[in-house]
Every structure is written in C-alpha cells, then in structure tokens.
Amino acid sequence: MLPEAIIPGNAKTEDAHRREICTAGRWIHARHFAPATDGNISVRLKASRVLTTPTCLSKGMMTPDDLVITDMEGRPLSGSRPPSTELAMHLLIYRLRPDVYAICHAHPPIATGFAAAGVPLDKAILSEAVLSLGCVPLAPYGTPGTTELCDSIEPLLRNYDSILMANHGVVTYGPDLLTAFFRMETVEHFAHVSLVTQLLGKQTLLSAADVDKLVAARERYGKARSNSNCEAPIAVEGEASAGKARRRAKQLQRS
C-alpha cells in the first residue's frame, strides 16, 4: 500500500483513520486549498464518536497523535489539543446525514472566489461535474465557528453533498474520506472551468435532455441518494427538464 494512500470505505481501524486524515490534510495543503492553519477534516468513528483535526495547526503538518476524538456533543474524549473551532458544523452534518462518515472543509481559491462573489456553481457546463456533484449551492454568510454558520448551511445539507459558503469556503462530505476529498477536488475543478468559460466570454450549457441523462446516471451509479431533492444544474435556457419536473412533483407529494 502506498504510504500516502487513502483506501475507499469506512470500515477501518482508528489508527488507519488517523493516518488517512493526515494524508488528506497534506493533499489539501499541497493543492493550496487550505493556507496556514485553515480548514478541517473529520471522520465518524462510531455513532457516538468523531475523529477530527485540531484547531490552529496546518493541515500539511499534522501527525496522527495531533487528532482529537469527541462525542457527538463536541466534548473531547481523547487528544492533547482542542478540536477544530468549526466542529459544530461537522456534528450537524453527521446528525442530519446518517449516510455521511467523512467531511472536508477548506478554502480552495477559485471555488471560494465564487462563494465570495455570491455565485453558486449551478450551471450544466461540465458533464463530469453533473455526474459527481449535481450542482453546488451557495449558503448565506454565517460567522465561522458560530451557530450562524450551522444555521446557514442546514437547509441545504439533506439534498446536497457539496456546499459553497458565502465569503468563506467549501464543505464536502460523503460515505468515506476519499469521497469527501474527491468532492472537494471536483468542486475546485468545476469552479476553475467555470471561471475559464467566463473569461472566454462564452458558456455553452448542456441541454435539459443531456442533464436528465446525467442525473439519471448519477442516481444509477450511486452518486446520488434516491430521497434527495437536489435541484438539477441549470441547462440551456428555455428548455424544460423532465427530470426537474419529476423532482418537483416528488417534493410536492412530500409537502
């Protein structure tokens, strides 16, 4: 096994989770997603325990012993350092999404630029992004480390796996750490391609029919949950999306 590998899946020893969180931290730091001591990562160990990065430590300089275990109320159970100041956001995601076992929060510069500009990543310009993410909504600004931040993202958590946080950064999550990291990387790639199209002065959107095919494939390949009410990315203007209509009908049935 490569020393810098993260293995898919969440059924691992605590030591393996510790090593892999440090690996993810180095990957995030090396890609300039989290300068200085920015960002935080966590893994759900069991229903009542979370392994998280500490506060005030570079994600590229962590060792397994630096990590902290807390309960689901944020109370430290082991570790010599205080946990991340944004642990409450992680705990909220775990409470609302029992399918989530790992979370990455970082400040990738281009995606964070979109967040600072108040622009969601919701246009169907990249087939791989539609397959991997659907779309990436924008949560209103909430002060980091406070309940404001949790309140701002809570309405989006059940239906999306990646969120831009206004004037702040990005949070991604999934069934394991590798998925959460890949989603962070894909959000930044999506933002980069979106920015290039804007600089070129032209965005060619996929058709609504193409988006419907990709959304259906996303559900078929297990990249989306069947009970999600995630909005489809914006397709060619004026084209009706059958998939969007079906999702709207499903929402009305549940309301």
Feature tags:
255 residues, alpha+beta, L-fuculose-1-phosphate Aldolase, 2 domains, 8 helices
Summarize the structure in words:
The protein is α+β, with helices and mostly antiparallel strands and 255 residues long. It folds into two domains: 14-200, L-fuculose-1-phosphate Aldolase; 208-254, no CATH class. 41% of the residues lie in helices and 14% in strands. It has helices spanning 14-30, 87-96, 109-117, 127-133, 147-157, 177-200, 208-220, 242-254, and strands at 40-46, 49-52, 68-71, 76-78, 102-106, 138-139, 162-165, 169-174. An eight-stranded mixed sheet has the order 4-3-2-1-5-8-7-6, with helices on both faces. Helix 3 crosses helix 6 (177-200) and helix 4 packs across helix 7. Mean pLDDT is 90; it is low at 239-243 and 245-255.
